[in-house]
Amino acid sequence: MKAKWESGSFFHLDVSAFAGESWLPASHQLYGSGRDALKALVVHGVSLGWKRLFVPSYYCHEVTESVRALISIELYHCNFQSDCMSLSLKDHDAIIVVEYFGRRSVVEVTGGVLILDVTHDPCSGWPYERSPDYIFASLRKTCFLPDGGILWSPVGALLPSTPFVTVAHERLSELMLNAMTLKAIYLSGGRIEKPVFLDMYRQAEAGCGQGECPAAMSIFSNVLLASFDMKRVRHARAENSRFLRDRLKFVLRDIEIVESDVYLIMLLIDADQRNFFRDRLIERSVFPIALWPLVGDEISQEDSVLSERVLMVHCDARYTLKDMEMIAEAIQQTMDVLHEC
Fold this sequence. Notes:
Blueprint: E1 7-8, E2 28-31, H1 34-47, E3 52-56, H2 61-67, E4 72-76, E5 85-88, E6 93-98, E7 107-110, E8 113-117, E9 134-138, E10 149-152, H3 167-187, H4 194-206, H5 219-225, H6 230-248, E11 256-258, E12 263-267, H7 271-283, E13 286-287, H8 301-309, E14 310-314, H9 321-340
Parallel strand pairs: 1-13, 3-4, 3-6, 5-7, 6-8, 8-9
Antiparallel strand pairs: 2-10, 9-10, 11-12, 12-14
């Protein structure tokens, strides 16, 4: 069988990633997704008197919508290009602060309850003048697992009630695991039709965090999580992203590169150029991502335009430096076509 090459999209099942030492915080809770973790925390917070939840304007607002029915939501203007800011909250307020792409947050908060979203790098360990009251993350963006979210308190704040495994979530996790397994066989050269596992992935993704009650992490992922080699994965990701930035700094001379050890992040001129760039990379089997589509009356023009310019390339531990060179060549070829237009 001849192996197929591509980069990006969701993780395939890679058993070699589960030979590490436990990296989990001493006291934590595991959920089916980051949304489940946040939903459980907000329900817990409301029982303690929380009235408002402040959410950054540049964010995955599908996450925001998952808790909108539970608490009053207010957006505050913040994105990954924002300058340092200080915010003062009332006692009954809570706020989500984001480490965009694994970068240190620029938001300092006094008062209220501080919730830090470390989804892009759960082990970032950035120091802050004020320790967060709670930290949560979606683990599916870093760990090669079919599901997972985590919540903990670095200051020892009371956590929500322990979540329960649900039949509905177990089925979704199993569906995602099937998609990951079939993708691994496909990439190794197996006779698997790609639409089969893509459809499984989309179904599982659509159901993520949609349960009425926050679900616990699946039994399968719970067994594997403690041995996930986070140290190796983070090192490989940082090495790969630095390689791409160095390799492309003169190739992408007209395009801003955002500093990150998690992805190669490019800021194109506008939505048309971003979409052109994305489509040409896909033709070369490089599947980039754009975070996040921002629409609605609450979204500022600045955030909306910024979201239309972002294009991110995966640099994670699935890939070697040889793979990074192939990605760099695809990007260079795309730049050549762009300059010819």
